[in-house]
Amino acid sequence: MGKLAVYKYFSFIFLITTFLMAGFTFFGLFGGNVQPAGNTARAMLVYVLPLLIIGDIVLLIYWLIRRRWHWAAIPFVTVLCCIPYSGTIYQFRSLDEKAESKSGLKIATYNVARFNRETTGFIAMDILAQMRKQSVDILCLQEYNDVSGNKKISDSYKEYFPYMAMGKSDMVVFSRFPIIATKNIEFEETNNSAMWADVNVNGQFFRFVNVHLETTGFNRTLHQAAKLHVQGHEIESNRLLRAIYGNYTMGMMVRAGQAERIVNELRMDPEKDFSLVICGDFNDVPYSYVYNTMLGDLVDGFKECGSGWMYTFRGRKSVRIDYIFHDESVKGLTYYRSDLSYSDHYPVLMKVEY
Fold first, then answer.
1. Is the pLDDT of residue 235 over 60?
2. How many alpha carbons fall within 13 Å on the CB side of residue 248?
3. In three state form, how does the secondary structure of the chain look?
């Protein structure tokens, strides 16, 4: 009788966990539909969706082993509902190598982290060599620094990219085709910004929006904590967690406002006679409010023609925070990440047919 009671107790615990895990997962899936201001807890669930999905899969296996088919249906349906989300970070298709030989426009976005403040210009020139090797036509850089030693990087890039548009501070668009118009999109009380450049590509007009949104503040918080620890100050774990959570939620709300600012700016041009491409460092994960706002009715290039596991941040968190979106007037051919190690980000490249 005692064993039966323990058995029923653990079954009840697993059942409650199944319902809770399913509930949190669904809240996470729709957490990106609400403005983070005033809904921070719900919005934060988006960041732990991969862990929640893994938990659902474990519970599904548990109930299948127990042959409790009716309870297994709960995590099974939950996992099925997560398939669209999973497609933003993993695609089962293989990369179409033949697509690279097709005619089209090659786009790249890369947060270069100011070329690691390297003064000889080697990093900048090697990045240029890689872009040339990949036959990139449009290059959008964030955290760009034009001065290297006593030389301007843009002067070295002119041979391959004869056209360029500078944004605020650290934003630039390099192009092999004529840039006919450009505009900066500035954000209040931050060094981050966005810009767009209209490009004439053999008679067809594109608007490339280069974006660099507010950082998460995670690494900055850890760096400050480590600095205080070296100075002999004791850092309480709960205080550190509160600081990390505070920076995450603040950054989340700031990015949400910046994304809305960009979208509203683009809506100010009602007579749209160009193909729209939005790319850059969003500093946010798929299915977040920022992701959904920036995506709108555009196409996520990775979901369209990407392959395998996609993450673009090289730090401790292997997450996808750099993107290329486009409208339906163009068709994606290839989408992939280049494994350059000069920054804490990877460059993202996409070829489109127009």
1. no
2. 19
3. CHHHHHHHHHHHHHHHHHHHHHHHHHHHHCHHHCCCCCCHHHHHHHHHHHHHHHHHHHHHHHHHHCCCHHHHHHHHHHHHHCHHHHCCCEECCCCCHHHHHCCCEEEEEEECHHHHHCCCCHHHHHHHHHHHHCCCCEEEEECCCCEECCEEHHHHHCCCCCEEEECCCCCEEEECCCEEEEEEEECCCCCCEEEEEEEEECCEEEEEEEEECCCCCHHHHHHHHHHHHHCCCCCCHHHHHHHHHHHHHHHHHHHHHHHHHHHHHHHCCCCCCCEEEEEEECCCCCCCHHHHHHHCCCEEHHHHHCCEECCCECCCCCCCCEEEEECCCCEEEEEEECCCCCCCECCEEEEEEC
Question: Given this model, what pLDDT does residue 95 score?
Answer: 78
- pLDDT classification of 116: cutoffs 50, 70, 90: confident
Q: Is 218 a residue whose pLDDT tops 60?
A: no
CA 303 to mean position of chain CA atoms: 13
Taking the model in full, what pTM does it have? 0.89
Instruction: Report the b/e string of 56-69 with b at 16+ CB within 10 A.
Output: beebbebbeeeeee
In angstroms, the CA 333 to CA 147 distance is 35
- For 273, counting Cβ atoms within 10 Å of its Cβ (0-12 exposed, 13-18 middle, 19+ buried), the class is exposed
pLDDT digits (tens, 9 = 90+) for 326-353: 999 999 999 999 999 999 999 999 999 9
Cβ 18 vs Cβ 75: under 8 Å:
yes
**Contact at 8 Å (CB) between 107 and 136?**
yes
pLDDT at residue 44 is higher than 70: yes
What is the CA 277 to chain-centroid distance, rounded? 15
What is the structure's pLDDT at 257? 94
